[in-house]
Amino acid sequence: MGPPLWKDADSHKAKQIWATYQAQHDLSAFQGQTVGIDPNSGRVWFGINILDAPERCAVLTFTKNCRC
After folding, report:
1. Could you tell me if 61 and 43 are in contact, meaning their C-beta atoms sit under 8 angstroms apart?
2. What is the Cα–Cα distance from 48 to 32, expressed in whole angstroms?
3. What pLDDT is attached to residue 23?
4. pTM of the prediction?
């Protein structure tokens, strides 16, 4: 089975999740890190680089539908 298809609606939802997350959390400790967002669950994952965040998401949620 191939990776799930990312749709424009997924990007829109991820942007909404990120805007809400930023408004509710102090992100100063995460400056310079990459964030991955799963638009289905609303979970946010931080990583040290662009490869790390989605990998953490995939390992911890068993999904590949997490993008940075």
Report:
1. yes
2. 8
3. 97
4. 0.69
Tokens of 36: 């991955």
- How far separated are the first and last CA of the chain, in Å rounded? 22
What would you report as the CA-atom Rg of the chain, rounded to the nearest whole angstrom? 12
- Output the CA–CA distances (angstroms, integers) from residue 33 to 2, 3, 23, 59, 68, in the order listed: 28, 25, 18, 18, 11
Which residues is 67 bridged to in the sheet? 37
- What pLDDT, in 10s, does the model give residues 17-49? 999 999 999 999 989 888 888 888 888 888 777
**DSSP-assigned letters across all residues of 3-67:** PPPP-HHHHHHHHHHHHHHHHHS--GGGTT-EEEE-TTT--EEEESSTTHHHHHHHHHHS-S--B
